[in-house]
């Protein structure tokens, strides 16, 4: 039979167990966060040191300067193909460009009252 005393003991035990579990879980989570943060900071320092050492190396001589435009985007842009398709010049080209699932004429909605 449950008495008031046994109910208080049961709830007290449950609360104490929950508090202990929370405490140890929080400690474990904080330790994991700290380890991840330290690993992330170590990785960032490594990347920064590599970037610093790479940016302070003497420049290399470019033997293929006439054909390599990777360092100069403005020269590279002139060799790119057209960014968009050109419109077809005649009806045959227009039909050939369309896939068999694409309508030959674009859909045009009927103007006027739609609710009548």
Key features of this structure:
0% strand, 3 helices, 116 residues, 55% helix, mainly alpha
Secondary structure topology:
Layout: H1 4-55, H2 73-77, H3 91-97
- Please give the oligomerization state of what you see: single chain
Report the uncertain regions: none
What is the share of helical residues? 55-70%
Main β sheet profile: none
In brief:
Helices cover 55% and strands 0% of the residues. The protein is an all-alpha fold and 116 residues long.
Question: How does this model look, in words?
Answer:
With 116 residues, the chain is mostly helical. The protein is flat and about 95 Å long. The model has no long low-confidence stretch (mean pLDDT 80). The chain contains three helices and no strands. It has helices at 4-55, 73-77, 91-97.
